[in-house]
Amino acid sequence: MKDINLYLIRHGQTEWNIKDQMQGSQNSPLTEQGILGAKITGQYLKDIPFMQAYSSTQQRAMETRDYIVKENNLTIPTFELADLREMDFGIWEGKHVPQLKKTFPEFTTYLTDPANFDASVNQGENYLDILTRMKQGLNTIVQNATQDTGNILVVSHGTVLRILLCVLNGGDWRLHRDENYFPRMLNTSISLVNYKQSHEHPEGAFTVKFFNNVDHLS
Predict the structure, then answer these.
(1) How far is the C-alpha of 12 from the C-alpha of 60, rounded, in Å?
(2) 3-class secondary structure for 114-137?
(3) Predicted local distance difference test score (pLDDT) of residue 183
(4) The pLDDT value given to residue 200
(5) pTM of model > 0.85
(6) Could you tell me which residues are beta bridge partners of residue 194?
(7) Among 66, 71, 148, 198, which is 20 to 30 Å from 27 by CA?
(8) Domain count of the chain?
(9) Grouped pLDDT means (10 residues each) for the chain, 218 residues
(10) DSSP states of 83-115
(11) Is residue 212 part of a domain?
(12) Which domain holds residue 78?
């Protein structure tokens, strides 16, 4: 039976984050602030005995993971998992967000009405697609854990973490973009999810202990 803590972290701040450009499948470099945030997060978590450390296959997440792992007191095996990657925004990638709001009426739907957003307009991904693969990613991680109990680091991305954590916390995915309902994930924020599998619950269950914590950055 399993009892595993998953420390879910959004990557550090990037150039496109501060320039307000759409960043999904494409990448931009971590800023100095982003690197510092990753190192501080690593320092904060340095005494956690992680058995494994995962990130998406995207550079900003891999680098954030590596900065965090480097601060730890243990040598931690690292892995990349494609299911953890950011939402693909198709032809919106790299575009300035204020300009997208003017050019695409559907962009407002993306921001405020997930249930009615149709990604065919930007040739990217729909919300339920990313939710499905993020759940699949977490299941892969717990299935491949080297021990039945322990801690695993997982570095991913803002949009995909927000919908995943909202739903794991018992929320409605259709409302996850509402800031009053569920907050956007901040760079190098920490969220803790526990996975427990027992004889009474052989299918296993995820429980959100806390989310979007940035106390370590203050």
Answers:
(1) 7
(2) HHHCCHHHCCCCCHHHHHHHHHHH
(3) 98
(4) 85
(5) yes
(6) 5, 207
(7) 71
(8) 1
(9) 97 98 97 98 98 98 98 96 98 97 95 97 98 98 97 98 98 98 98 94 94 97
(10) GGSPPP-GGGTT-BHHHHHHH-HHHHHHHH-GG
(11) yes
(12) 26-87+141-151+186-197+206-218
